[in-house]
Amino acid sequence: MGKDVLDELVRQILAAAPDIPPAAVQTAAARIRQDWGGERVYFKKAPAEGKALRLGTALAAGVPLTQACAEVGVSESYGYRLASRRWRVR
Question: Which of 12, 13, 18, 44 is the most buried (most CB within 10 A)?
């Protein structure tokens, strides 16, 4: 079986917000385990908007698509897919 996601989440929360008492985070983790223990949970992927924005910024700066995809961390085919989408700008 893989890593315990809840332990990793607790570790990252305590690292990101050291002012939160560790006992409070551990109590919340225990409640989550009690409520969700044994279940299969699903984590959504990060939204594509962030990668698309970074890709668009690089392309607007004149960077070739291949290089922009490498900088953003996406494959070239996914870069073409992101570049072809219509994004609403607010």
Answer: 13
